[in-house]
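pasting for the record
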Amino acid sequence: MTGIERCQCRLNRAQRNHLCANMLVWLCFKELAYKTKQTVYQLKHNLMSDYLKQQLRNPTIAFC
């Protein structure tokens, strides 16, 4: 969900920072999900869906 399993950091400090950032994201998702009365997975799906719709309407990267 937050990318913890994809960490490729080798240094202890970098691993710690990566884990802390992921936990912070998870807590923000949990708080927002609670406020909107959704699950974390519904919230993430809706955010990604809205982003993808916006990008399809107005792409920010020009493809040649």
